[in-house]
Protein backbone atom coordinates (compact mmCIF):
# COMPACT_ATOMS: atom_id res chain seq x y z
CA UNK A 1 0.00 0.00 0.00
CA UNK A 2 2.92 2.40 0.64
CA UNK A 3 4.09 2.02 -2.98
CA UNK A 4 0.59 2.74 -4.25
CA UNK A 5 0.28 5.80 -2.02
CA UNK A 6 3.55 7.19 -3.38
CA UNK A 7 2.36 6.87 -6.98
CA UNK A 8 -1.22 8.04 -6.73
CA UNK A 9 -1.53 9.83 -3.37
CA UNK A 10 -4.02 9.27 -0.62
CA UNK A 11 -7.00 10.30 -2.79
CA UNK A 12 -6.52 8.78 -6.29
CA UNK A 13 -8.89 9.50 -9.17
CA UNK A 14 -11.77 7.08 -9.57
CA UNK A 15 -10.38 5.12 -12.52
CA UNK A 16 -10.37 1.34 -12.19
CA UNK A 17 -8.40 0.76 -15.40
CA UNK A 18 -5.44 2.88 -14.27
CA UNK A 19 -5.55 1.84 -10.61
CA UNK A 20 -6.73 -1.80 -10.51
CA UNK A 21 -4.94 -2.43 -7.20
CA UNK A 22 -7.00 0.12 -5.29
CA UNK A 23 -10.13 -1.18 -3.62
CA UNK A 24 -12.48 -0.23 -0.82
CA UNK A 25 -11.46 -0.78 2.80
CA UNK A 26 -13.91 -3.02 4.68
CA UNK A 27 -14.58 -2.52 8.39
CA UNK A 28 -16.91 -4.57 10.57
CA UNK A 29 -19.32 -2.26 12.38
CA UNK A 30 -22.63 -2.41 14.24
CA UNK A 31 -25.90 -2.11 12.34
CA UNK A 32 -28.06 0.74 13.69
CA UNK A 33 -31.22 -1.18 12.76
CA UNK A 34 -30.78 -4.64 14.33
CA UNK A 35 -27.61 -4.07 16.45
CA UNK A 36 -25.88 -6.99 14.69
CA UNK A 37 -22.53 -6.63 12.93
CA UNK A 38 -22.49 -5.46 9.33
CA UNK A 39 -19.81 -4.29 6.88
CA UNK A 40 -18.81 -0.67 6.21
CA UNK A 41 -16.84 -0.04 3.02
CA UNK A 42 -14.66 3.09 2.69
CA UNK A 43 -13.28 4.40 -0.59
CA UNK A 44 -10.98 7.43 -0.76
CA UNK A 45 -11.11 9.09 -4.17
CA UNK A 46 -11.12 12.42 -5.97
CA UNK A 47 -14.25 13.68 -7.76
CA UNK A 48 -14.12 16.76 -10.02
CA UNK A 49 -15.90 19.82 -8.56
CA UNK A 50 -15.88 18.11 -5.14
CA UNK A 51 -12.17 17.59 -4.53
CA UNK A 52 -11.17 14.68 -2.28
CA UNK A 53 -14.00 12.61 -0.81
CA UNK A 54 -14.56 9.58 1.38
CA UNK A 55 -17.38 7.40 0.01
CA UNK A 56 -18.94 5.18 2.68
CA UNK A 57 -21.37 2.31 2.19
CA UNK A 58 -22.88 0.08 4.91
CA UNK A 59 -24.80 -3.18 4.45
CA UNK A 60 -26.15 -5.67 6.98
CA UNK A 61 -26.72 -9.31 5.98
CA UNK A 62 -28.91 -9.95 9.05
CA UNK A 63 -31.72 -7.43 8.44
CA UNK A 64 -30.90 -6.17 4.95
CA UNK A 65 -30.37 -2.55 6.07
CA UNK A 66 -28.22 -0.48 3.67
CA UNK A 67 -26.88 3.04 3.87
CA UNK A 68 -24.39 5.19 1.96
CA UNK A 69 -23.00 8.68 2.37
CA UNK A 70 -20.17 10.91 1.23
CA UNK A 71 -17.82 13.00 3.35
CA UNK A 72 -15.38 15.68 2.11
CA UNK A 73 -11.79 14.63 2.59
CA UNK A 74 -10.03 17.71 1.21
CA UNK A 75 -9.67 21.30 2.27
CA UNK A 76 -12.63 23.65 2.57
CA UNK A 77 -13.12 26.12 -0.29
CA UNK A 78 -12.08 29.75 0.41
CA UNK A 79 -15.67 30.99 -0.11
CA UNK A 80 -19.17 29.66 0.31
CA UNK A 81 -21.34 29.00 -2.74
CA UNK A 82 -24.98 29.62 -3.68
CA UNK A 83 -26.33 27.61 -6.65
CA UNK A 84 -29.79 28.44 -8.05
CA UNK A 85 -31.20 26.11 -10.70
CA UNK A 86 -34.48 26.40 -12.60
CA UNK A 87 -36.13 22.97 -12.95
CA UNK A 88 -38.24 23.04 -16.10
CA UNK A 89 -38.29 19.57 -17.69
CA UNK A 90 -37.48 15.93 -16.97
CA UNK A 91 -33.82 16.41 -17.95
CA UNK A 92 -33.49 18.94 -15.14
CA UNK A 93 -34.86 16.40 -12.66
CA UNK A 94 -31.99 14.10 -13.67
CA UNK A 95 -29.28 16.69 -13.00
CA UNK A 96 -26.57 15.16 -10.84
CA UNK A 97 -26.03 16.98 -7.54
CA UNK A 98 -23.10 16.78 -5.13
CA UNK A 99 -24.04 18.17 -1.71
CA UNK A 100 -21.95 18.36 1.45
CA UNK A 101 -23.02 18.12 5.08
CA UNK A 102 -23.02 21.93 5.35
CA UNK A 103 -25.37 22.64 2.44
CA UNK A 104 -28.95 23.80 2.91
CA UNK A 105 -31.51 23.20 0.16
CA UNK A 106 -34.49 25.43 -0.49
CA UNK A 107 -37.44 25.09 -2.89
CA UNK A 108 -38.67 28.63 -3.41
CA UNK A 109 -42.19 27.85 -4.69
CA UNK A 110 -43.09 25.75 -1.62
CA UNK A 111 -41.21 27.97 0.85
CA UNK A 112 -39.52 24.75 2.01
CA UNK A 113 -35.94 24.48 3.29
CA UNK A 114 -33.74 21.57 4.38
CA UNK A 115 -31.38 23.01 7.03
CA UNK A 116 -27.64 22.51 6.85
CA UNK A 117 -26.20 19.49 8.70
CA UNK A 118 -29.65 17.85 8.89
CA UNK A 119 -28.64 15.36 6.17
CA UNK A 120 -25.40 13.64 5.31
CA UNK A 121 -23.49 14.59 2.18
CA UNK A 122 -24.32 12.56 -0.91
CA UNK A 123 -24.13 12.30 -4.68
CA UNK A 124 -27.70 12.28 -5.97
CA UNK A 125 -30.06 13.94 -8.47
CA UNK A 126 -32.67 16.68 -8.15
CA UNK A 127 -35.37 14.02 -8.19
CA UNK A 128 -33.42 12.06 -5.58
CA UNK A 129 -33.44 15.08 -3.25
CA UNK A 130 -37.24 15.33 -3.52
CA UNK A 131 -37.68 11.56 -3.01
CA UNK A 132 -35.52 11.66 0.11
CA UNK A 133 -37.64 14.45 1.59
CA UNK A 134 -40.83 12.51 0.80
CA UNK A 135 -39.45 9.36 2.46
CA UNK A 136 -38.40 11.32 5.53
CA UNK A 137 -41.83 12.95 5.94
CA UNK A 138 -43.77 9.77 5.25
CA UNK A 139 -41.92 7.36 7.54
CA UNK A 140 -43.76 8.38 10.76
CA UNK A 141 -47.13 9.12 9.19
CA UNK A 142 -48.91 5.92 10.37
CA UNK A 143 -48.22 6.78 14.02
CA UNK A 144 -48.81 10.48 13.46
CA UNK A 145 -52.25 9.84 11.92
CA UNK A 146 -53.32 8.23 15.22
CA UNK A 147 -51.70 10.63 17.69
CA UNK A 148 -51.88 13.92 15.73
CA UNK A 149 -54.38 13.57 12.86
CA UNK A 150 -54.41 17.29 12.00
CA UNK A 151 -50.64 17.50 11.66
CA UNK A 152 -50.62 14.27 9.65
CA UNK A 153 -53.18 15.70 7.25
CA UNK A 154 -51.07 18.82 6.71
CA UNK A 155 -47.98 16.68 6.05
CA UNK A 156 -49.93 14.55 3.55
CA UNK A 157 -50.93 17.72 1.73
CA UNK A 158 -47.30 18.87 1.62
CA UNK A 159 -46.14 15.44 0.36
CA UNK A 160 -48.68 15.75 -2.44
CA UNK A 161 -47.18 19.15 -3.32
CA UNK A 162 -43.70 17.60 -3.48
CA UNK A 163 -44.93 14.81 -5.74
CA UNK A 164 -46.57 17.43 -7.97
CA UNK A 165 -43.15 19.04 -8.42
CA UNK A 166 -41.88 15.80 -9.99
CA UNK A 167 -44.74 15.93 -12.51
CA UNK A 168 -43.46 19.38 -13.61
CA UNK A 169 -46.85 20.97 -14.01
CA UNK A 170 -45.01 24.25 -13.40
CA UNK A 171 -41.27 25.06 -13.12
CA UNK A 172 -39.65 25.46 -9.71
CA UNK A 173 -36.37 26.81 -8.36
CA UNK A 174 -33.88 24.74 -6.35
CA UNK A 175 -31.37 26.75 -4.29
CA UNK A 176 -28.34 25.15 -2.62
CA UNK A 177 -26.41 27.26 -0.11
CA UNK A 178 -23.16 25.67 1.08
CA UNK A 179 -20.85 27.55 3.44
CA UNK A 180 -18.05 25.04 2.74
CA UNK A 181 -18.22 25.77 -1.02
CA UNK A 182 -18.07 22.05 -1.88
CA UNK A 183 -21.43 21.54 -3.59
CA UNK A 184 -22.11 21.20 -7.30
CA UNK A 185 -25.01 20.91 -9.75
CA UNK A 186 -24.40 19.30 -13.14
CA UNK A 187 -24.33 21.51 -16.21
CA UNK A 188 -26.45 19.80 -18.88
CA UNK A 189 -25.10 22.14 -21.59
CA UNK A 190 -21.40 21.62 -20.86
CA UNK A 191 -19.05 22.96 -22.09
CA UNK A 192 -21.45 25.84 -22.84
CA UNK A 193 -22.86 28.08 -20.14
CA UNK A 194 -25.90 26.74 -18.29
CA UNK A 195 -28.70 29.34 -18.72
CA UNK A 196 -30.84 27.70 -16.01
CA UNK A 197 -28.16 27.80 -13.28
CA UNK A 198 -26.71 30.79 -11.46
CA UNK A 199 -23.67 30.32 -9.24
CA UNK A 200 -22.39 32.98 -6.83
CA UNK A 201 -19.82 32.95 -4.05
CA UNK A 202 -19.81 34.75 -0.71
CA UNK A 203 -17.46 35.43 2.18
CA UNK A 204 -18.24 33.38 5.27
CA UNK A 205 -19.09 35.09 8.54
CA UNK A 206 -17.16 34.46 11.74
CA UNK A 207 -19.91 32.15 13.04
CA UNK A 208 -19.94 30.15 9.79
CA UNK A 209 -16.16 29.72 9.95
CA UNK A 210 -16.46 28.45 13.51
CA UNK A 211 -19.12 25.89 12.50
CA UNK A 212 -16.65 24.58 9.91
CA UNK A 213 -13.89 24.45 12.51
CA UNK A 214 -11.98 27.41 11.04
CA UNK A 215 -10.42 29.80 13.56
CA UNK A 216 -7.97 32.64 13.12
CA UNK A 217 -4.60 32.65 14.84
CA UNK A 218 -5.77 35.35 17.29
CA UNK A 219 -8.87 33.33 18.24
CA UNK A 220 -6.83 30.21 18.89
CA UNK A 221 -4.16 32.04 20.87
CA UNK A 222 -6.61 33.88 23.15
CA UNK A 223 -5.77 33.13 26.79
CA UNK A 224 -7.89 33.61 29.95
CA UNK A 225 -6.92 36.68 31.94
CA UNK A 226 -6.20 34.67 35.11
CA UNK A 227 -3.64 32.44 33.38
CA UNK A 228 -0.59 34.59 34.13
CA UNK A 229 2.08 31.90 33.88
CA UNK A 230 1.11 30.77 30.39
CA UNK A 231 0.94 34.36 29.15
CA UNK A 232 4.45 35.07 30.43
CA UNK A 233 5.70 31.87 28.80
CA UNK A 234 4.22 32.90 25.46
CA UNK A 235 5.73 36.38 25.66
CA UNK A 236 9.23 34.99 26.20
CA UNK A 237 9.24 33.35 22.74
CA UNK A 238 11.06 35.67 20.32
CA UNK A 239 8.88 36.85 17.45
CA UNK A 240 11.39 35.86 14.76
CA UNK A 241 11.42 32.26 16.10
CA UNK A 242 7.67 31.87 16.64
CA UNK A 243 6.40 33.39 13.38
CA UNK A 244 6.15 31.55 10.06
CA UNK A 245 7.46 34.44 7.93
CA UNK A 246 10.74 35.73 9.39
CA UNK A 247 11.20 39.53 9.40
CA UNK A 248 13.96 41.02 7.24
CA UNK A 249 16.59 42.97 9.12
CA UNK A 250 16.71 46.65 8.28
CA UNK A 251 19.08 47.33 5.41
CA UNK A 252 19.71 43.63 4.73
CA UNK A 253 17.78 43.56 1.45
CA UNK A 254 17.46 46.70 -0.66
CA UNK A 255 14.21 46.91 -2.61
CA UNK A 256 15.95 46.27 -5.96
CA UNK A 257 17.56 43.05 -4.68
CA UNK A 258 14.33 41.89 -3.01
CA UNK A 259 12.47 42.10 -6.33
CA UNK A 260 15.09 39.88 -7.95
CA UNK A 261 15.17 37.36 -5.09
CA UNK A 262 13.16 34.12 -5.10
CA UNK A 263 11.56 33.61 -1.67
CA UNK A 264 10.67 30.13 -0.46
CA UNK A 265 8.29 28.85 2.22
CA UNK A 266 7.02 25.42 3.22
CA UNK A 267 3.50 24.22 2.44
CA UNK A 268 1.57 21.00 1.82
CA UNK A 269 0.97 19.52 -1.63
CA UNK A 270 -2.70 19.98 -2.70
CA UNK A 271 -2.66 16.51 -4.32
CA UNK A 272 -0.92 14.16 -1.87
CA UNK A 273 -0.65 16.45 1.23
CA UNK A 274 3.11 15.81 1.46
CA UNK A 275 5.44 18.58 2.65
CA UNK A 276 6.87 20.61 -0.24
CA UNK A 277 8.27 24.06 -1.00
CA UNK A 278 6.58 26.99 -2.73
CA UNK A 279 8.76 29.54 -4.53
CA UNK A 280 7.56 33.14 -4.72
CA UNK A 281 8.96 35.98 -6.78
CA UNK A 282 7.93 39.59 -7.40
CA UNK A 283 8.36 40.58 -11.03
CA UNK A 284 7.26 43.39 -13.36
CA UNK A 285 5.44 42.71 -16.63
CA UNK A 286 6.45 45.27 -19.29
CA UNK A 287 3.70 47.78 -20.13
CA UNK A 288 1.58 46.39 -17.27
CA UNK A 289 2.33 46.21 -13.53
CA UNK A 290 4.00 44.25 -10.73
CA UNK A 291 2.81 40.69 -10.09
CA UNK A 292 3.66 37.97 -7.58
CA UNK A 293 4.36 34.55 -9.15
CA UNK A 294 4.16 31.47 -6.93
CA UNK A 295 5.21 27.98 -8.06
CA UNK A 296 4.95 24.70 -6.16
CA UNK A 297 6.82 21.48 -6.98
CA UNK A 298 6.13 18.28 -5.05
CA UNK A 299 8.93 15.69 -5.00
CA UNK A 300 6.53 13.01 -3.71
CA UNK A 301 3.91 12.93 -6.49
CA UNK A 302 5.52 15.20 -9.09
CA UNK A 303 2.80 17.86 -9.03
CA UNK A 304 3.75 21.23 -10.52
CA UNK A 305 1.50 24.26 -10.11
CA UNK A 306 1.87 27.97 -10.66
CA UNK A 307 -0.30 30.84 -9.51
CA UNK A 308 -0.18 34.57 -10.11
CA UNK A 309 -1.39 37.34 -7.82
CA UNK A 310 -1.57 41.00 -8.90
CA UNK A 311 0.92 43.13 -7.01
CA UNK A 312 -1.37 46.14 -6.82
CA UNK A 313 -4.98 46.57 -5.82
CA UNK A 314 -8.18 46.51 -7.87
CA UNK A 315 -8.10 48.93 -10.79
CA UNK A 316 -10.61 51.76 -11.11
CA UNK A 317 -12.10 50.13 -14.22
CA UNK A 318 -12.66 46.59 -15.39
CA UNK A 319 -11.08 45.33 -18.60
CA UNK A 320 -12.30 43.18 -21.48
CA UNK A 321 -9.57 41.81 -23.75
CA UNK A 322 -10.35 40.25 -27.14
CA UNK A 323 -7.53 38.45 -28.95
CA UNK A 324 -7.83 36.72 -32.32
CA UNK A 325 -5.70 33.57 -32.47
CA UNK A 326 -4.59 33.20 -36.09
CA UNK A 327 -1.54 30.95 -35.81
CA UNK A 328 1.63 30.06 -33.94
CA UNK A 329 2.66 33.69 -33.40
CA UNK A 330 -0.50 34.34 -31.40
CA UNK A 331 -0.08 31.12 -29.40
CA UNK A 332 3.19 32.54 -28.02
CA UNK A 333 1.56 35.67 -26.53
CA UNK A 334 2.10 36.01 -22.78
CA UNK A 335 -1.14 36.00 -20.79
CA UNK A 336 -1.79 37.04 -17.21
CA UNK A 337 -5.17 35.80 -16.00
CA UNK A 338 -6.33 36.90 -12.57
CA UNK A 339 -8.62 34.85 -10.33
CA UNK A 340 -11.57 37.14 -11.14
CA UNK A 341 -11.20 36.82 -14.93
CA UNK A 342 -13.68 34.75 -16.95
CA UNK A 343 -13.00 33.36 -20.44
CA UNK A 344 -15.22 33.03 -23.51
CA UNK A 345 -14.35 31.42 -26.86
CA UNK A 346 -16.82 32.69 -29.43
CA UNK A 347 -16.32 30.09 -32.17
CA UNK A 348 -16.73 27.19 -29.73
CA UNK A 349 -19.51 28.87 -27.69
CA UNK A 350 -17.53 27.91 -24.60
CA UNK A 351 -17.48 29.97 -21.41
CA UNK A 352 -15.25 29.30 -18.40
CA UNK A 353 -16.06 30.96 -15.09
CA UNK A 354 -13.71 33.15 -13.11
CA UNK A 355 -12.73 30.56 -10.51
CA UNK A 356 -12.23 27.65 -12.90
CA UNK A 357 -8.58 28.09 -13.92
CA UNK A 358 -7.45 30.33 -11.05
CA UNK A 359 -4.82 33.01 -11.49
CA UNK A 360 -1.93 32.09 -13.77
CA UNK A 361 0.81 33.53 -15.98
CA UNK A 362 1.09 31.51 -19.17
CA UNK A 363 0.68 31.77 -22.96
CA UNK A 364 -2.39 31.56 -25.20
CA UNK A 365 -1.48 27.96 -25.99
CA UNK A 366 -0.99 27.14 -22.32
CA UNK A 367 -4.33 28.74 -21.48
CA UNK A 368 -6.19 26.62 -24.06
CA UNK A 369 -4.40 23.47 -22.92
CA UNK A 370 -5.24 24.15 -19.27
CA UNK A 371 -8.87 24.81 -20.24
CA UNK A 372 -9.04 21.47 -22.04
CA UNK A 373 -7.55 19.59 -19.09
CA UNK A 374 -10.02 21.29 -16.73
CA UNK A 375 -13.01 20.36 -18.90
CA UNK A 376 -11.85 16.76 -19.33
CA UNK A 377 -11.45 16.37 -15.56
CA UNK A 378 -14.75 18.07 -14.72
CA UNK A 379 -16.91 16.26 -17.27
CA UNK A 380 -15.27 12.90 -16.56
CA UNK A 381 -17.23 12.61 -13.32
CA UNK A 382 -20.51 11.63 -15.01
CA UNK A 383 -19.29 10.73 -18.50
CA UNK A 384 -20.15 7.03 -18.12
CA UNK A 385 -23.81 7.78 -17.37
CA UNK A 386 -24.33 10.67 -19.80
CA UNK A 387 -26.87 10.31 -22.59
CA UNK A 388 -25.85 9.92 -26.24
CA UNK A 389 -26.59 13.56 -27.08
CA UNK A 390 -24.33 14.85 -24.31
CA UNK A 391 -21.48 12.52 -25.29
CA UNK A 392 -21.70 13.53 -28.95
CA UNK A 393 -21.73 17.23 -28.03
CA UNK A 394 -18.67 16.85 -25.78
CA UNK A 395 -16.78 14.79 -28.40
CA UNK A 396 -17.51 17.40 -31.07
CA UNK A 397 -16.38 20.21 -28.77
CA UNK A 398 -13.08 18.50 -27.86
CA UNK A 399 -12.39 17.80 -31.55
CA UNK A 400 -12.81 21.50 -32.35
CA UNK A 401 -10.68 22.55 -29.37
CA UNK A 402 -7.92 20.09 -30.36
CA UNK A 403 -7.98 21.51 -33.89
CA UNK A 404 -7.63 25.03 -32.46
CA UNK A 405 -4.71 24.01 -30.22
CA UNK A 406 -3.05 22.40 -33.25
CA UNK A 407 -3.38 25.72 -35.12
CA UNK A 408 -5.95 24.50 -37.65
CA UNK A 409 -8.85 26.69 -36.49
CA UNK A 410 -9.04 30.42 -35.86
CA UNK A 411 -10.40 31.46 -32.46
CA UNK A 412 -11.46 34.65 -30.73
CA UNK A 413 -10.76 34.56 -26.98
CA UNK A 414 -12.52 37.12 -24.79
CA UNK A 415 -11.17 37.71 -21.28
CA UNK A 416 -13.45 39.69 -18.96
CA UNK A 417 -11.84 40.84 -15.71
CA UNK A 418 -13.83 43.25 -13.52
CA UNK A 419 -10.72 43.88 -11.36
CA UNK A 420 -8.68 45.08 -14.36
CA UNK A 421 -5.73 42.87 -13.38
CA UNK A 422 -5.49 40.71 -16.51
CA UNK A 423 -3.13 41.24 -19.42
CA UNK A 424 -2.35 39.90 -22.92
CA UNK A 425 0.97 40.67 -24.58
CA UNK A 426 0.90 42.96 -27.60
CA UNK A 427 3.03 42.20 -30.65
CA UNK A 428 3.91 45.91 -30.99
CA UNK A 429 7.16 47.04 -29.44
CA UNK A 430 5.59 50.04 -27.71
CA UNK A 431 2.93 47.93 -25.98
CA UNK A 432 -0.03 49.44 -27.86
CA UNK A 433 -2.69 46.92 -29.02
CA UNK A 434 -1.91 45.31 -32.39
CA UNK A 435 -4.44 44.44 -35.12
CA UNK A 436 -5.45 41.14 -33.46
CA UNK A 437 -5.75 42.57 -29.95
CA UNK A 438 -8.60 44.71 -28.66
CA UNK A 439 -8.75 46.14 -25.12
CA UNK A 440 -11.95 47.68 -23.71
CA UNK A 441 -12.13 49.32 -20.31
CA UNK A 442 -15.48 49.72 -18.59
CA UNK A 443 -17.02 50.85 -15.34
CA UNK A 444 -18.09 48.01 -13.06
CA UNK A 445 -21.75 47.52 -12.18
CA UNK A 446 -23.05 47.66 -8.63
CA UNK A 447 -23.34 43.85 -8.50
CA UNK A 448 -19.73 43.42 -9.65
CA UNK A 449 -18.54 45.85 -6.96
CA UNK A 450 -20.66 43.98 -4.42
CA UNK A 451 -19.07 40.65 -5.34
CA UNK A 452 -15.60 42.19 -5.05
CA UNK A 453 -16.49 43.76 -1.68
CA UNK A 454 -15.89 47.31 -2.92
CA UNK A 455 -19.29 48.75 -1.97
CA UNK A 456 -18.59 48.28 1.74
CA UNK A 457 -15.06 49.69 1.57
CA UNK A 458 -14.33 53.06 3.14
CA UNK A 459 -10.75 54.16 2.57
CA UNK A 460 -11.06 57.79 3.71
CA UNK A 461 -12.29 59.17 7.05
CA UNK A 462 -13.22 55.65 8.13
CA UNK A 463 -12.88 56.62 11.80
CA UNK A 464 -15.64 59.23 11.65
CA UNK A 465 -18.46 56.68 11.45
CA UNK A 466 -17.41 54.98 14.67
CA UNK A 467 -17.08 58.35 16.41
CA UNK A 468 -20.53 59.47 15.26
CA UNK A 469 -22.06 56.18 16.38
CA UNK A 470 -20.50 56.46 19.84
CA UNK A 471 -21.66 60.08 20.17
CA UNK A 472 -25.26 59.26 19.23
CA UNK A 473 -25.25 56.42 21.76
CA UNK A 474 -24.26 58.77 24.57
CA UNK A 475 -27.18 61.05 23.79
TrEMBL record:
Keywords: Cell projection, Cytoplasm, Differentiation, Metal-binding, mRNA processing, mRNA splicing, Nucleus, Repeat, Zinc, Zinc-finger. Residues 452-475 are annotated as: Disordered. GO terms for biological process: axon development; DNA replication; mRNA processing; positive regulation of gene expression; positive regulation of protein import into nucleus; RNA splicing. InterPro entries: Znf_ZPR1, ZPR1, ZPR1_A/B_dom, ZPR1_jr_dom, ZPR1_Znf1/2. GO terms for molecular function: translation initiation factor binding; zinc ion binding. Its main location: other. GO terms for cellular component: Cajal body; Gemini of Cajal bodies; growth cone; nucleolus; perinuclear region of cytoplasm. Residues 29-187, 267-426 form the Zinc finger ZPR1-type domain. It holds the Pfam family Zn_ribbon_ZPR1. It is found in: Cell projection, Axon; Cell projection, Growth cone; Cytoplasm, Perinuclear region; Nucleus, Cajal body. NCBIfam families: ZPR1_znf. Belongs to the ZPR1 family. This is Zinc finger protein ZPR1. The lineage of its organism: Eukaryota, Metazoa, Ecdysozoa, Arthropoda, Hexapoda.
Amino acid sequence: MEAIAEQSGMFPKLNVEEEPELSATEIESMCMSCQENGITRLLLTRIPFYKEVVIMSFSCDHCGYENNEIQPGGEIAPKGVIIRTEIVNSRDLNRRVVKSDFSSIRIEELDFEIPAQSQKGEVTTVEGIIDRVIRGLDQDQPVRRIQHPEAAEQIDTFITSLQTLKELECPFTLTITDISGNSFVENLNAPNKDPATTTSHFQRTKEQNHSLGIFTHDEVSEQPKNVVGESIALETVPEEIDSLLKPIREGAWPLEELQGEVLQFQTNCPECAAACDTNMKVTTIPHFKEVVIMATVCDNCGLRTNEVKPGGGIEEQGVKIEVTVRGRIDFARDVLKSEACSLHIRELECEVGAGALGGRFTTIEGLLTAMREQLVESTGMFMDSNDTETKERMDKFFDQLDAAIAGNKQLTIVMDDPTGNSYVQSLNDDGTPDTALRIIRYHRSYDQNEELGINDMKTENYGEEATDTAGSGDC
